[in-house]
Design brief:
The complex is a heterodimer. Chain A is mostly helical. Chain A has 8 helices and no strands. Chain A is globular and about 70 Å long. Chain B is built from 9 helices and 2 strands. Chain B has a two-stranded antiparallel sheet. Classes of the chains: A mainly alpha, B mainly alpha. Chains A and B meet through helix 2, helix 4, helix 6 and helix 8 of A and helix 2, helix 4, helix 8 and helix 9 of B.
Amino acid sequence: MTELFLTSVFGDNIALAFFLGMCTFLAVSRRVATAVGLGMCMMLVMFITVPFNQIVFTRLLKPGALHGIGLGELDVSFLMLVCAIGTIAATVQILEMLLYRFVPDLFEALGVFLPLLTVNCAILGASLFMVERQYGFVESVVYAGGSGVGWAMAIIMLAAIRERLTFSRIPPGLQGLGMAFIVTGLLSMGFATLSTGG
Amino acid sequence: MNTASLLSRPLLRDNPVTVQILGICSALAVTTSLITALTLCAALSIVLCCSSMIISALRQHIPASTRLIIQITIIASLVIVVDLLLKAYLFDISQQLSVFVSLIVTNCLVLGRAEAFAMQHTVRESLMDAVGNSVGYSAVLIIVASIRELLGSGSLLGEPVFTRASEGGWFEPLDFMLKAPSAFFIIGLLVWAVCPRKRVDEHSKTKHTTSLVINPHGASHE
């Protein structure tokens, strides 16, 4: 389990090795405070949705899952995508309401990016990878925790670097997005050295 | 907006990847070889065009409060169909693409165009916009994939172009091109290359405002 956790945080970092959640990653990484807030939300949503989707998949959708009610031959695994999105949308909606009530400053700071978590490739990607790699429940929990921590770490690092880059002399065409890509590439190189595989 | 501008703007001026910053995830992940990039471009184009048309056709009947989830459901259904078709007819490539075909659902480009354009325009205009954005997106992916595959394996579409050193030729493949970070660098440089004058001026204005409100202790207030 520790190996799974460490791999999903460092070597197989969901942002830097699999490029998931890039749009939000690049858009929210201008200031560390917002990046930390978004990272926390991302961790929370992943941690809730991936294990829940694992239960949905194994108990409802997998071939043979509906054996208990006499529909053992039915294979509705193609519905995984719609179900996963449903779970994520519901979780994000609840998180939005909780933040609005208890942490309104963060709610204001995140703005439109909070509902955009619904269509964040990283959150859906984590669930889809969980299905593809056929993780058990405990593995899903560990994987979700690791991926969330990894993504949060990556965005906070990028935000910290970009905050300081505002004072650097960068060619006009590269300012902003272009430089963000290149810095992320360098971060990705750094994390690649931590991977256990090839 | 006439057809010509709808089709031509997303190619350079409003390019989805380099200007609108949409659909980045797949542009980075599937561009290790040209054939996977082309397959994803085709899949995304089909989903984008069909979903834009359907959502535009239904736009009068979608209530504002639930429109996001309805759009996502329409897109997800299309993606499931495309995914199953790919698994049936192009199995090897679909294995390489793994989850990235399913991730077209969350591709910011598809949802972005549905929300920003298809909900307010006619079916014909939405189709033209979808085609334009598909071409713009595919162009970027093809450029990145060609560079990565050519320099990383010396081949294009699986056919060897440069003779490799291992086969007595001159070309030493750059393994770095097949790894994750190279995609970031290539797209960063592409963004620089297509950066229009007006974005440069906007950005230098923002820089001045930011430096005025940052206090000496390092914390920023805005």
